[in-house]
Amino acid sequence: MPTQLTGQKMFLAGKWVKSDRTIEVRDPQDNSIIDIVPAASAEDMMNCIEEAKDGAKIAASMPVHERMRIVHAAADYIENHAEKYARTIAREGSKTIREATIEVARCIQTLRISAEEARRIHGETIPFDQMPGSENRVGYFYRFPIGIIGAITPFNDPLNLVAHKVGPAIASGNAIIVKPATVTPLSALLLAEAFAEAGLPSKVLSVITGYGSEIGDVLVTHPAIRMISFTGGLEAGEEISRKAGLKKISMELGSNSPVIVLEDADIEAAVESTVSGSFWAAGQNCLGVQRIYVQESILEAFQEKFVKTTKEYNIGDKQSELTDMGPLITEKEAVRVERMVNEAIEKGAVLLTGGKRNGAFYSPTVLTDVPENCTIAKEEIFGPVVLLYSVSDLDTAIRKSNDVDYGLQAGVFTNDLGKAHKAIAKMDVGGIMINDSSDYRIDAMPFGGTKNSGLGREGIKFAIEEMTEQKVVCFKLSN
User: Which residues form a coiled coil (predicted)?
Assistant: First the structure.
């Protein structure tokens, strides 16, 4: 029985709006049409920005307790409709229902933390009398909202990564315009629904669906937009940086995440953690494990257990609780991953398991002996493929881990505190997880990377710092 299309509306400055032009939202599992959403025009985006100018004033004037109430109420709404949100994530994207349920729970937490951080946007007193001649001056600085934030979000976490931009923006008194991924807009619209139900004033939040080529440049280049928060690929990030002009830019651009497993590690725990870290959301995860450097004395044991566990992965229907991994977001993406794996095999890599494609599905794949001149060794795979390497010692593992143009997060498995601290000091990444894979994250921590992995930090408190400016106040006292 075909799905009945309801025809979603976009959320333009607090109003649900249709468009004559539409975009089909398809389930990557079978390419069936789930629904349709508006294809906004450049004019729609211009209108949205004009409305957001008023929205920024409204947001800035909201007292902290009201911001907190609204964000908490949005979290309550999602919690009360959690199954609906999870089913939507699992339908429009790549995540299984179990993965989607976890994302919904994280979104709720992201919003609750945002509400609480609203009360902690502090300033500091400044001792002006540290400078001779300023003995009669006292003052402080405080943080104020920057205005309108443009957010561009990816498909792989279509609810929580939007919440990571919307929650801090509203908590800090800003207006925000979200342009969600074209292939996964429904979850972002559901987030807008939650804020509408929570009583967020009109014009503060917009979720505009459409093609980046038609509305992206308007959002990125408009002088009224004071900050762009982007999560996505390096190439798109570089393009945004060139076009944005004089505004704040926060970017999370992906990675090629390494994990080091030393001979004193708990092999069972390392295998369990890195298999999950490699294939969560079909490997379409910026924190996903891509390279594993295993000390040669334990390589055989680790490899045997890793391949065995990988082969036990259940691939299939995303809506089934029994499924471990679903499809990639499109068949085109699966073909891209297939091409990268085939190139590596042609150049001498050994396929230990996987390497098979069926439409948008690509089996969990493990490669070893991958030559360094392969694309897959240096670039982000963003698919269910992991590379195993043998290393003689920690120094070699650190050197090889750093030998890419990315540096988001890394993992190190060891029970030697000295070796752990050496890795912490020497690895060029934004986060390092000891006895966890690179995939570990909580929503309250600072999140971002070095090199081509991005600019700035997300994580609610740290996003709020990016979304606010400091204003200095100084009183000259009379004698």
Answer: none
